[in-house]
Design brief:
Elements lengths: L2 H32 L22 H22 L3 H24 L9 H12 L1 H19 L6 H14 L4 H7 L3 H20 L21 H15 L1 H33 L1 E5 L15 E5 L7
Antiparallel strand pairs: 1-2
């Protein structure tokens, strides 16, 4: 293959490879949450979360961490000024870890946590890939800092990553609302306040024994499973998660515009690509360099 063909092909190969790795990571997360429902028998306990994923949580965590670092390596290969972007990702993860440490020391009401603001806004500005990594690494590092290690950790990492990854969907309606951008993100953050709890309950729910109206048992039809889980969620977690919803909405409305301004400033400084200018016709003097121009680019495109 000629050098010119390699230059045109490699970015597409890297992009497809990165997309495949993100896709595999998402599939692994979905399987990790849902595979108990496919088993013919599940060991259940009256203690909430007592038997949940006791044998496979370490494997899922290891696999997720390996995939996250594989994604980081791919982004380093793909992105312009990737070292600075990775450094910025590290700073955001560190800030969020400190916020979670403060939240652990002085707990907020119900499921409130301040960490979702940066995860959602980071995914909105820098794109789904950075949003996913910000969510995954925030939960991992903050768990190490606060001592919140347990079989639930890889599942929290998956869900936080999905929250950051999905924030990009707000971009399109945000173009039409102008100054209502923060309001849209607040609504989106509020929705994830409920979704985080609703999805996280699934990691232990199949392993809990209890009333047939609220709990699952092997062989339960799909529709009946959904009905029982909806009743379980409303009865046990809804009020708790409403506190997270309210916290996300209030924090994004209060601090979202200022945080977006700072994140976009870093985006403009760090995300550019070097585009070589066409060579002039005729012979070049020996030792001369090919001129080039810098143009804004980035990992996912600016919102």
């Amino acid at each position: 293959m000629a050098a010119e063909e390699r230059v045109k092909t490699e970015p597409w190969v890297m992009r497809l490879t990165a997309t495949a790795v993100y896709g595999i990571t998402t599939v692994v997360g979905l399987v990790a949450f849902l595979y108990p429902f496919w088993l013919p028998a599940v060991e259940q306990s009256n203690q909430v979360g007592g038997m949940a994923h006791a044998g496979d949580a370490a494997l899922v965590l290891t696999l997720l961490v390996v995939l996250a670092f594989a994604v980081l390596l791919l982004e380093v290969q793909r992105a312009a000024l990737s070292a600075k972007m990775v450094a910025l990702l590290g700073v955001l993860v560190a800030i969020n870890s400190v916020l979670r440490f403060v939240d652990a020391a002085v707990p907020g009401p119900g499921g409130f946590s301040p960490i979702f603001v940066l995860i959602i806004l980071g995914g909105y500005v820098f794109g789904p890939r950075v949003g996913f990594l910000l969510g995954v690494l925030t939960l991992l590092v903050s768990a190490l800092v606060t001592g919140g290690m347990g079989p639930w950790l890889p599942y929290q990492m998956f869900v936080a990553g999905w929250a950051g990854m999905s924030a990009v969907v707000v971009r399109w309606p945000a173009h039409w609302f102008g100054r209502g951008e923060a309001l849209l993100l607040a609504i989106f953050g509020g929705a994830w306040g409920l979704l985080f709890g609703a999805i996280m309950n699934i990691w232990f729910w199949p392993f809990v024994a209890g009333s047939a109206d609220l709990y699952w048992s092997p062989g339960t039809p799909a529709w009946e499973t959904v009905r029982r889980y909806a009743l379980f969620y409303v009865a046990t977690s809804l009020v708790w998660d409403v506190m997270r919803l309210a916290g996300n909405v209030v924090l994004i409305l209060a601090f979202g515009p200022a945080i977006l301004k700072v994140l976009r400033r870093f985006y403009q400084r760090f995300a550019f690509t070097y585009a070589p200018a066409p060579l002039p016709a005729g012979p070049r003097p020996e030792g001369s360099r090919r001129p080039g121009v810098y143009a804004p680019a980035g990992l996912e495109g600016r919102p």
